[in-house]
């Protein structure tokens, strides 16, 4: 029985075999690795991942798809977790001694940003992440200072990860086809991060990008003086999208003092 894609779950099923093969080649799953797939859907990628893995965990919200997955795969090889990835405790997944978790998935575009921030809570437990996302979101994730795409998402994720846009996927690769282009992003947690309180960094970045048309002095008024901005090398007349990660971290450390 054909599964009808559900808009409320943001379902667009990847069907293009060449794209699937390219994703698997980028991920390169190995038998001894601990991997979890978010939103396996109709299992197009799941089957290919399992060919290279001993076991695979999947997180799926759609009850009909959960039933289909449990019926289609050996439960010793595919461990199905029914639930919302936004609430899922990825730290609870079993990982072999000395190993870290690998996370993959064609993420629902309607929850991509909150899901990325939820996953960021588990950065220290993760080896890498490979996701299919809306191309525009991936461009924001990897954007450099000075780009229109550079913003809160860029700064907060770049503080935690090295990220690369690997390749673009056209709408025709999906059923039903989305209205936008997609892209594959690789995210590797940084071995060492710039020292700061992440909650302070979040406060600074949220405030700085709250009014993108204004200069940074006006955006962070009440949080920092002009002298404080100058003390960390920030021209108060600059706009938030021109300021690099390092200077946002410096501001977060000023806030923490």
Question: What does the model show?
Answer:
This protein is of the alpha/beta class. The protein has helices at 17-27, 44-50, 63-72, 112-120, 135-142, 152-160, 198-208, 216-219, 226-231, 245-256; strands at 13-14, 34-38, 56-60, 78-82, 101-106, 126-134, 161-169, 174-175, 182-189. The chain folds into two domains: 7-189, Vaccinia Virus protein VP39 (Rossmann fold, 3-Layer(aba) Sandwich), CATH 3.40.50; 198-256, Helicase, Ruva Protein, domain 3 (Orthogonal Bundle). Helices cover 34% and strands 20% of the residues. Strands 4-3-2-5-6-9-7 form a seven-stranded mixed sheet. It has a two-stranded antiparallel sheet with strand order 1-8. The model is unreliable at 3-10 (pLDDT under 50). It is an enzyme of class 2 (transferase).
Helix and strand topology:
Layout: E1 13-14, H1 17-27, E2 34-38, H2 44-50, E3 56-60, H3 63-72, E4 78-82, E5 101-106, H4 112-120, E6 126-134, H5 135-142, H6 152-160, E7 161-169, E8 174-175, E9 182-189, H7 198-208, H8 216-219, H9 226-231, H10 245-256
Parallel strand pairs: 2-3, 2-5, 3-4, 5-6
Antiparallel strand pairs: 1-8, 6-9, 7-9
Helix pairs in contact: 1-2, 7-10
